[in-house]
Amino acid sequence: MNHNIAIDGPAGAGKSTIAKIVAKELESIYVDTGAMYRAIAIFLIRRGFSVQELNPRDERYEESIVRVEEALREAEVSIEYRDGQQIVLLNGENVTPHLREESTGNMASVSSAIPAVRAKLLDLQRALAARTAVVMDGRDIGTVVLPDAQVKIFLTASVETRAQRRYRELIGKGETADLEQIAADIAERDERDMNRPIAPLKQAEDAKLVDSSNLTIPEVTDVILRYFCRKNNIVIAESAGFCFGVKRAVQLVHDCIDEKEKNGGTPGSIYTLGPIIHNEYVVKEMESHGVITLQDESELEQVSEGTVVLRSHGVSKKVVESLEEKEDVTIVDATCPFVKKIHKIVREESGKGKQIVIIGDPQHPEVIGTMGWSETPCIVISEKEEAAALKVPENKPLCVVAQTTFNLEKFKELVEIIKKLGYDIVVLNTICNATSMRQTEARSLAESSDIMLVVGSGTSSNTRKLYEICQEGCANTYYIQSLDDLNPIQFQSDSCVGITAGASTPNYFIQEVSRYVRRAKL
Question: 326 Cβ partners below 8 Å, 6+ apart?
């Protein structure tokens, strides 16, 4: 069975752009049905037909339709691929350069509703889908052309968003454009498409609605690919990949890189104290742009100028103060806001005379940095035995916080042990909500999967915790640090494969893993 994808939606929703990317990712054939209808529109314009006379309300309509049916006998539309690009031929002529012209679009909107036009192209489209896996986009692919498509998407966006996109496109080409008029034309075309008597624009009952108004092209593509995977028993956790703090940190480093390159490579170098996040692939990519990873504070002391990016895990108060004393050093604080919140709590509560207890990994840079904000020495525990053996002066109150990526269930367990010791205690659950959600989703997904893949760097604490959680729910759980780790795994076509990833795992690597699994299963 071919894995056909139908992408429908109104004009200007980005269907063609998205469909091309999805087709390339899935190694399928992209069929731009709209381009085929536009080719017919070009043919009709050249034959002297007008949009007005092909409007059913026009008094010339019936006569014009007969003329169209006769003219179509001399129209041949075909598709070729040259250098990986789709070429639309009209009677042997490459008309691709004319497909996006405004007059062509307006004519296609009315002519595509003519039965003879639709019949001429429908057979070609269905024949392509029967022969090979295709991604087709248009206005009625899921409802009429490929009603049995395995995956159906209805891609839309607000009229305002689509008008802005078209406006920017025209301005970018050096053409004049009226935003209000463009919006009016789009609204009018929507009305026409949704109310045409034959195959009107509408969402198929089994199509997934994707509103791209507030999404980037990669984000829309990711939604569709994840949906396709789910249809093939490959479920990628919604929370898999970069969390807010990591995404922010990576973006800040790239902003520094862009600024440096814009200024001709000056002034100074870009540094991070330790890797900006726990993912060696991301770090290597940054280093290829000249970012220097400092291994410890002694190396930081040698930096006299340039930009120092404080990584997402945060650093101690001492490190911040030493950097602030360097006049020629610019500080970019990429510390996760949730980590900074813990720094504030630790500083204030220790200042009140409380003993700070951090539940987390004592070797983790986040915990080390957090300890550096306490007015007094902290106690760090990570195991039940350490909690039970906790010794603090009887009259000293405790403030318990957690590493943001610590296992939530384990945190609760350790807190209960400490509470039983009878201390005056304040517990602040500082585990990031995204971490909690990621762990909860991973546990649920593992329990319903035949094979569970946890994707991320071996140096990532939160990824290791995800792996431990998934092992409890699925015996066939694998830690995937590179594609080589997938080679020994046997994927059956009917097996359900769950995929989750740590907060420092880039989306492109998650997609590489899902691509490997798709090929292995299909």
Answer: 303, 304, 305
How many whole angstroms separate alpha carbon 60 and alpha carbon 149? 38
Contact 233, 496 (CB under 8 A): yes
27-52: b or e for each residue (b if 16 or more CB lie within 10 Å)? ebbbbbbbbbbbbbbbbbbeeebebe
Copy the structure tokens of residue 97: 């350069």
The answer to whether 306 touches 329, Cβ cutoff 8 Å, is yes
- SS3 of the chain: helix, strand, coil, percent, to 5: 50, 15, 35
Cα–Cα dist 67/75, whole Å: 13
Q: Which of 219, 366, 394, 472 is catalytic?
A: 366
Catalytic status, residue 366: yes
> What span, in angstroms and rounded, lies between the C-alpha atoms of 331 and 338?
19
The model's pLDDT over 35-78, given as tens digits with 9 standing for 90+, comes to 889 999 999 999 999 999 999 899 999 999 999 999 999 998 88
Strands 425-427 and 398-402: parallel
Residues 6+ apart with CB under 8 A from 167: 177, 179, 182
